[in-house]
Amino acid sequence: MELKPGLSAFVTGGASGIGKALCIALAEKGIFVTVVDYSEKGKEVALLLQKENLKLHSGSKFPSAIFVKCDVSNKGEVAAAFEKHLETYGGLDICINCAGIVTSVPFQQDQTDGTRSWRHAINVNLVAVIDCTHRAIKIMEAAKKPGVVINLGSASGLYPMITDPIYSSSKGGVVMFTRSLAPYKKKGIRINVLCPEFVRTDMGELVDMRYIDIMGGFVPIDTIIKGTFELITDESKAGACLWITNRRGLEYWPTPNEEAKYLLPSSKMRKRFASVTPTTVHIPQSFEKVIVHTLSNNFRGATSVVRAPLSLPIKSDHVLLKIIYAGVNASDVNFSSGSYFSGSKQEISSRLPFNAGFEGVGLIAAVGDGVKNLKVGTPAAIMTFGAYAEFAMVPSKHILPVVRPDPEVVAMLTSGLTASISLEKAAQMESGKTVLVTAAAGGTGQFAVQLAKLAGNKVVATCGGKDKARLLRDLGVDRVIDYKEESIKNVLKKEFPKGVDIVYESVGGDMFDVCFNALAVYGRMVVIGMISQYQGEDGWKPRNYTGLCEKLLAKSQTLAGFFLTQYAHLWQQHLDSLVHLFSLGKLKVTVDPKSFVGVQSVADAVEYLHSGKSVGKVVVCIDPSFSQQTAKL
What we know:
Largest sheet: 8 strands, mixed
Shape: elongated
Oligomer: single chain
CATH topology of the largest domain: Rossmann fold
CATH architecture of the largest domain: 3-Layer(aba) Sandwich
Helix content: 25-40%
CATH superfamily of the largest domain: NAD(P)-binding Rossmann-like Domain
Strand content: 15-25%
């Protein structure tokens, strides 16, 4: 929802603290405000808004603000307050429930039945929020217009507050109540919850300052306003919980990884993402595979398709996987040139031939002695050399169980895992940041932009071409920079003068320079590749970055490299998380529509990826007979 003049807002607890600040901030946007509070100070706030907004609302038939005295724990007074708002403004666009109190007597010392202490606190902090939210929803539904409800929770509703268990439990109730209302988005009504740590208000001043100091000080009221406006304006936020601290800034809670631990897909999604029924796999006497016979970054010239024998039984503690789909990666040319192997070029050449291909999915065709936890006919993935083949034999420890051997799962392997793990570990990504992703419409970029958005960040993405730009907008990117239409350097300098907080970089060369120079103070840049440098005449040639140390030092920045093989211990965990997000419909996976069938087409697929024409993940269908028999995701 765009915050613009003419909208109306209903704000409880508007006489002081956060409520008063939000009333003022909304009024400055030209929004009509009903200040609701038990305190007569609310009348002063309404008069202030009227005085300050004479120019904004000159000629309007509505007053810029009104005050309604109301005890929110009294349902009759709440009903009357909403009626007064509707009578004055004719509709309701925004409802913000700020009213809240702490208990008057510490719970441990309360010798009463709690009527005037903890029962009253629960009525004000939780029951009134439910009442006001319910009334706001009914009004918005009747008007058949979009609306937003913001409920004020607290960080103590996410984690225990031992000094006031009643306050903590009531705010925890607000959090779960609000998050459970996400489905109202289908009706155009979005209900979100804000959970700040301590703010310098009358209530906040009651807290021991030693505790405030430990928490990093009071959260500025401007940050609360920023978070509230984000929840109002971001149409993707429904049932969202925004946690605000000085230590971590604005962070959506729970994180996607935490959410994946307990959310289950719908029955529709379970059917769509059902596992393949185990079946017997025919094992031929020989199979085709792609090998590297000459060291060169010209993949076609460096490789050939050969036929190799296949006999049983297989090695002990090994698994034979029938490959159905294999993923294509920009770094295939680094592998064919020997860049990933240690030693001189002569030493590396002496080890030829190499089995090519980094990733694939298929069905387990056979298991060796000692393999107890894997069954023939079940789906699995591999991320080892040799995936450009009809069959691959690998140690059982390298097998990654998957629900289906489909191209979307291939995309989640090298591309998806690189994005997921590097953003968490190397970028240390939080919420409320600006994240820049280069080559964002490619295999890994598509995951990076979505994971950054899911974590509650503003995402800027670069690409080349209208089709790629369209994909990125569909994925929710906030600012798409098509370098064929505009200068990346100029856009970053003009629109992000303070810089970006995180860069996810895979292009290298001049793009590295542009992105690094756009990095903010304390910014973190993660290099996951340098595709522009892979296919020069001299191969993977090192580049000089003059003054790099000085730049890092001047702005307390971090430059981190990321190589997926060094994080193998996290593969299964992050793969499961990606699959789960996909099954929930929270993650989209784009596979390039161009068809490549059989191992003979692998060189064509690699060249196509490096042509810059691909959109999403490039995949080779090794076994078309299986893909024709089974419905895709």
